[in-house]
Fold this protein.
Amino acid sequence: MLIRATLLLTTALFTGDFPSGPQVKDKLPDFKAHSYAGPDAGKEFKILDKTKGGPTLLIFMHPTAGENGITRPGLQFLRPVDKYAAENNKLATQIVWVTGDKEKTEAFLKRAETSLNFQSPVSICLDGGKDGPATYGLNDKVQITVLVCKDNQVVANFALADPSGNDSRKVIAAVAKVLGKDPPKEDKKDPKKRG
């Protein structure tokens, strides 16, 4: 355990990356959330009840990154990932706000609902306050933590301190892989679709 922590810290120091959340090959721990938008809006649920061991995409929005966890680059990262996730009904997706203030976050999501326009379910983490579930080890130095999972095991982890369109493509490629698909081709002719 100490060796793993030392390796993660060394990686962070030399690459500028900050580890966040369960790492590749870790089991996906359970946590409780409140569904803000999606088929279960207004209800509390446990995340493993939603994933059912299948292909899973969890996107954690960290509150220290901006007002309730969203910045313009963060939103630019999320739009294509959200679109791709919504097009794949075999994928259990949750965009999860990690916060110590559920009511404030709900108010923000209500104000921003039209501009965010997410197609994937949106929820608010109820465990661990502003740090999120203790079993997840989320890092407040990153704006967004993305976990791609299958069989309740992490297969890809993206801790994004400064998200970009390149990160979107990497996440979509990882999601396509757990779905057994080829990643979508990048449209080189349309500069608006490039990140």
Confidence is low (pLDDT under 50) at residues 1-16.
